[in-house]
Amino acid sequence: MRLIAGATMQRAAVEVRLAPGWKTYWRYPGDSGIPPRFDFSGSQNVKSVTVRWPAPRRSVDESGTTIVYKHDVVFPLAIVPEDAAKPTTLRLKLDYGVCAKICVPADAKGELTLEGSSTFAGRIAASEALVPKPAALGADGALSIRAARREGNKVVVDIAAPPGADVELFAEGPAPDWALPVPTPVSQAGSLHRFAFDLDGLPPNMKPDGAMLTLTAVAGDQAIEVSFRLD
Fold first, then answer.
1. In angstroms, rounded to a whole number, what is the distance separating the alpha carbons of residues 183 and 198?
2. Where do you find CATH 2.60.40.1250 in the chain?
Protein backbone atom coordinates (compact mmCIF):
# COMPACT_ATOMS: atom_id res chain seq x y z
CA MET A 1 0.00 0.00 0.00
CA ARG A 2 1.09 3.57 -0.61
CA LEU A 3 -0.37 7.07 -0.64
CA ILE A 4 -0.09 8.94 -3.93
CA ALA A 5 -0.68 12.65 -4.53
CA GLY A 6 -3.10 14.29 -6.94
CA ALA A 7 -2.84 17.49 -8.96
CA THR A 8 -4.05 19.70 -6.08
CA MET A 9 -3.62 19.75 -2.32
CA GLN A 10 -7.19 18.46 -1.97
CA ARG A 11 -6.63 15.33 -4.05
CA ALA A 12 -4.73 12.13 -3.27
CA ALA A 13 -5.34 8.39 -3.31
CA VAL A 14 -4.57 5.09 -1.63
CA GLU A 15 -3.02 2.54 -3.97
CA VAL A 16 -3.17 -1.16 -3.06
CA ARG A 17 -1.10 -3.45 -5.26
CA LEU A 18 -1.90 -7.16 -5.31
CA ALA A 19 0.22 -10.15 -6.24
CA PRO A 20 -1.18 -12.26 -9.13
CA GLY A 21 -4.07 -14.44 -7.99
CA TRP A 22 -4.87 -12.35 -4.90
CA LYS A 23 -7.89 -10.15 -4.25
CA THR A 24 -9.00 -7.60 -1.68
CA TYR A 25 -12.47 -6.46 -0.62
CA TRP A 26 -14.99 -3.70 -1.26
CA ARG A 27 -16.53 -1.62 1.55
CA TYR A 28 -19.16 -4.40 1.90
CA PRO A 29 -17.40 -7.73 1.33
CA GLY A 30 -20.44 -9.98 0.83
CA ASP A 31 -20.69 -13.43 2.38
CA SER A 32 -17.22 -13.22 3.97
CA GLY A 33 -14.06 -11.15 3.93
CA ILE A 34 -12.54 -8.09 5.59
CA PRO A 35 -13.52 -4.64 4.28
CA PRO A 36 -10.79 -1.96 4.25
CA ARG A 37 -10.73 0.37 7.25
CA PHE A 38 -9.06 3.74 6.63
CA ASP A 39 -7.83 5.70 9.66
CA PHE A 40 -6.56 9.22 8.89
CA SER A 41 -6.81 10.48 12.48
CA GLY A 42 -3.03 11.06 12.72
CA SER A 43 -3.01 13.51 9.80
CA GLN A 44 -2.01 17.18 10.13
CA ASN A 45 -4.10 20.12 8.93
CA VAL A 46 -6.88 17.78 7.78
CA LYS A 47 -10.53 18.48 8.59
CA SER A 48 -11.92 15.48 6.70
CA VAL A 49 -10.99 12.76 4.21
CA THR A 50 -13.60 11.08 2.01
CA VAL A 51 -12.64 7.73 0.48
CA ARG A 52 -14.18 7.02 -2.92
CA TRP A 53 -14.70 3.41 -3.96
CA PRO A 54 -14.21 2.22 -7.56
CA ALA A 55 -16.79 -0.31 -8.74
CA PRO A 56 -15.98 -3.85 -7.53
CA ARG A 57 -16.72 -7.28 -8.99
CA ARG A 58 -18.42 -10.46 -7.81
CA SER A 59 -16.31 -13.49 -6.86
CA VAL A 60 -17.79 -16.95 -6.23
CA ASP A 61 -15.88 -19.80 -4.58
CA GLU A 62 -16.33 -22.40 -1.86
CA SER A 63 -16.64 -19.67 0.80
CA GLY A 64 -19.64 -18.12 -0.96
CA THR A 65 -20.09 -14.91 -2.95
CA THR A 66 -17.82 -11.99 -2.15
CA ILE A 67 -17.43 -8.46 -3.53
CA VAL A 68 -13.83 -7.78 -4.44
CA TYR A 69 -11.07 -6.15 -6.42
CA LYS A 70 -9.07 -8.78 -8.29
CA HIS A 71 -6.32 -6.45 -9.48
CA ASP A 72 -4.44 -3.42 -8.17
CA VAL A 73 -6.88 -0.77 -6.97
CA VAL A 74 -6.64 2.98 -6.40
CA PHE A 75 -9.04 4.59 -3.90
CA PRO A 76 -9.37 8.33 -4.69
CA LEU A 77 -9.45 10.68 -1.69
CA ALA A 78 -11.20 14.04 -1.35
CA ILE A 79 -9.42 16.08 1.34
CA VAL A 80 -10.69 19.13 3.20
CA PRO A 81 -7.85 20.92 5.05
CA GLU A 82 -8.29 22.86 8.26
CA ASP A 83 -6.37 25.77 6.68
CA ALA A 84 -5.93 25.78 2.90
CA ALA A 85 -2.95 28.12 3.20
CA LYS A 86 -0.90 25.66 5.26
CA PRO A 87 0.79 22.35 4.29
CA THR A 88 -1.26 19.16 4.65
CA THR A 89 0.21 15.83 5.74
CA LEU A 90 -1.79 12.64 5.40
CA ARG A 91 -1.05 9.80 7.80
CA LEU A 92 -2.94 6.59 7.16
CA LYS A 93 -3.39 3.39 9.11
CA LEU A 94 -5.06 0.82 6.87
CA ASP A 95 -6.52 -2.51 7.96
CA TYR A 96 -7.68 -4.74 5.12
CA GLY A 97 -7.87 -8.35 3.97
CA VAL A 98 -6.28 -10.19 1.06
CA CYS A 99 -7.29 -13.59 -0.23
CA ALA A 100 -6.01 -16.24 -2.64
CA LYS A 101 -6.26 -19.89 -1.61
CA ILE A 102 -6.16 -18.59 1.95
CA CYS A 103 -7.44 -15.31 3.38
CA VAL A 104 -5.32 -13.22 5.71
CA PRO A 105 -5.71 -9.88 7.49
CA ALA A 106 -3.19 -7.20 6.53
CA ASP A 107 -2.24 -3.76 7.80
CA ALA A 108 -0.16 -0.91 6.48
CA LYS A 109 0.89 2.64 7.32
CA GLY A 110 1.65 5.53 5.02
CA GLU A 111 2.53 9.22 5.20
CA LEU A 112 2.40 11.86 2.47
CA THR A 113 2.78 15.65 2.46
CA LEU A 114 0.65 17.22 -0.27
CA GLU A 115 2.37 19.84 -2.40
CA GLY A 116 -0.20 20.37 -5.15
CA SER A 117 1.57 18.58 -7.99
CA SER A 118 2.07 14.96 -8.92
CA THR A 119 2.84 12.52 -11.71
CA PHE A 120 -0.04 10.34 -10.43
CA ALA A 121 -2.89 12.73 -11.32
CA GLY A 122 -3.80 10.70 -14.42
CA ARG A 123 -3.93 7.43 -12.51
CA ILE A 124 -6.17 8.98 -9.86
CA ALA A 125 -8.47 10.47 -12.51
CA ALA A 126 -8.77 7.07 -14.23
CA SER A 127 -9.80 5.46 -10.94
CA GLU A 128 -12.21 8.31 -10.20
CA ALA A 129 -13.97 7.51 -13.47
CA LEU A 130 -14.68 3.98 -12.15
CA VAL A 131 -16.47 5.26 -9.02
CA PRO A 132 -20.25 4.68 -9.35
CA LYS A 133 -22.15 7.84 -10.32
CA PRO A 134 -25.23 8.86 -8.31
CA ALA A 135 -28.44 8.16 -10.23
CA ALA A 136 -32.18 8.19 -9.64
CA LEU A 137 -34.35 5.10 -9.59
CA GLY A 138 -36.22 4.81 -12.88
CA ALA A 139 -34.00 7.28 -14.76
CA ASP A 140 -33.08 6.72 -18.39
CA GLY A 141 -29.53 5.97 -19.46
CA ALA A 142 -27.33 3.37 -21.12
CA LEU A 143 -26.93 1.91 -17.63
CA SER A 144 -29.88 2.48 -15.31
CA ILE A 145 -31.88 0.82 -12.57
CA ARG A 146 -35.32 0.95 -14.16
CA ALA A 147 -37.30 -0.54 -11.27
CA ALA A 148 -36.92 -1.97 -7.77
CA ARG A 149 -39.71 -3.48 -5.74
CA ARG A 150 -40.29 -5.52 -2.65
CA GLU A 151 -42.13 -8.82 -3.00
CA GLY A 152 -42.68 -10.11 0.52
CA ASN A 153 -39.25 -10.99 1.89
CA LYS A 154 -37.56 -10.52 -1.50
CA VAL A 155 -36.34 -7.50 -3.47
CA VAL A 156 -36.46 -7.61 -7.28
CA VAL A 157 -34.39 -5.14 -9.33
CA ASP A 158 -34.48 -4.50 -13.10
CA ILE A 159 -31.34 -3.05 -14.74
CA ALA A 160 -30.99 -1.73 -18.28
CA ALA A 161 -27.44 -2.14 -19.59
CA PRO A 162 -25.53 -1.81 -22.88
CA PRO A 163 -25.70 -4.91 -25.14
CA GLY A 164 -23.13 -7.55 -24.29
CA ALA A 165 -22.12 -5.96 -20.97
CA ASP A 166 -21.24 -8.11 -17.97
CA VAL A 167 -23.77 -6.79 -15.44
CA GLU A 168 -23.44 -6.93 -11.65
CA LEU A 169 -25.65 -5.68 -8.82
CA PHE A 170 -24.72 -5.13 -5.16
CA ALA A 171 -27.02 -4.16 -2.29
CA GLU A 172 -26.15 -2.46 1.01
CA GLY A 173 -28.28 -1.71 4.04
CA PRO A 174 -28.48 1.65 5.82
CA ALA A 175 -25.81 0.69 8.38
CA PRO A 176 -22.71 -1.56 8.48
CA ASP A 177 -24.46 -4.14 10.69
CA TRP A 178 -26.75 -5.08 7.79
CA ALA A 179 -25.45 -8.15 5.93
CA LEU A 180 -27.69 -8.47 2.87
CA PRO A 181 -27.10 -11.35 0.45
CA VAL A 182 -25.35 -10.52 -2.81
CA PRO A 183 -28.12 -10.18 -5.45
CA THR A 184 -28.26 -13.00 -8.00
CA PRO A 185 -29.28 -12.73 -11.67
CA VAL A 186 -32.63 -14.42 -12.35
CA SER A 187 -33.46 -13.50 -15.96
CA GLN A 188 -32.46 -11.43 -18.99
CA ALA A 189 -34.56 -10.09 -21.85
CA GLY A 190 -32.50 -8.12 -24.34
CA SER A 191 -30.81 -5.25 -22.51
CA LEU A 192 -32.94 -5.73 -19.37
CA HIS A 193 -31.37 -7.76 -16.55
CA ARG A 194 -33.36 -8.87 -13.51
CA PHE A 195 -31.72 -9.55 -10.14
CA ALA A 196 -33.24 -10.62 -6.82
CA PHE A 197 -32.15 -11.03 -3.20
CA ASP A 198 -33.80 -12.02 0.07
CA LEU A 199 -34.16 -9.58 2.96
CA ASP A 200 -31.85 -11.62 5.17
CA GLY A 201 -28.93 -10.55 7.32
CA LEU A 202 -30.75 -7.76 9.14
CA PRO A 203 -29.65 -6.80 12.67
CA PRO A 204 -31.55 -8.57 15.47
CA ASN A 205 -35.13 -7.34 15.95
CA MET A 206 -34.77 -4.98 12.98
CA LYS A 207 -37.65 -4.69 10.49
CA PRO A 208 -36.90 -3.71 6.89
CA ASP A 209 -39.94 -1.40 6.53
CA GLY A 210 -38.85 2.08 5.46
CA ALA A 211 -35.11 1.30 5.35
CA MET A 212 -33.02 3.00 2.69
CA LEU A 213 -30.92 0.58 0.65
CA THR A 214 -28.04 1.46 -1.66
CA LEU A 215 -28.05 -0.40 -4.98
CA THR A 216 -24.85 -0.37 -7.05
CA ALA A 217 -25.08 -1.52 -10.66
CA VAL A 218 -21.94 -2.23 -12.71
CA ALA A 219 -21.68 -2.90 -16.45
CA GLY A 220 -18.19 -2.95 -17.94
CA ASP A 221 -16.46 0.31 -17.01
CA GLN A 222 -19.77 2.02 -16.15
CA ALA A 223 -21.30 2.03 -12.67
CA ILE A 224 -24.17 3.82 -10.91
CA GLU A 225 -25.44 4.07 -7.34
CA VAL A 226 -29.15 4.39 -6.53
CA SER A 227 -31.02 4.82 -3.24
CA PHE A 228 -34.13 2.67 -2.77
CA ARG A 229 -36.64 2.88 0.08
CA LEU A 230 -38.12 -0.41 1.30
CA ASP A 231 -41.79 0.55 1.53
1. 8
2. 2-128
User: Which pLDDT tens digit goes with each residue over 10-29?
Assistant: 999 999 999 999 999 999 99
DSSP 3-state percent helix, strand, coil across the chain (nearest 5): 5, 55, 40
On whether the CB atoms of residues 86 and 162 are closer than 8 A, the answer is: no
> Identity (one letter) of the amino acid at 146?
R
> Which pLDDT score is estimated for 119?
86
Strand pairing class (222-229; 133-135): parallel
Query: What type of residue is 192?
Result: L
Classify 133-229 by CATH class. mainly beta
Query: What are the counts of helices (DSSP H) followed by strands (DSSP E) for the chain?
Result: 1, 18
Can you say whether the dihedral through the CA atoms of 172, 175, 177, 178 is positive or negative?
negative
Assess contact for 98 and 35: CB atoms under 8 A.
no
Class of 2-128 per CATH? mainly beta
Verdict on whether the full-model pTM lies above 0.90: yes
> Distance between alpha carbon 223 and the CA centroid of its chain, in Å?
10
In three-state secondary structure terms, 81 is strand
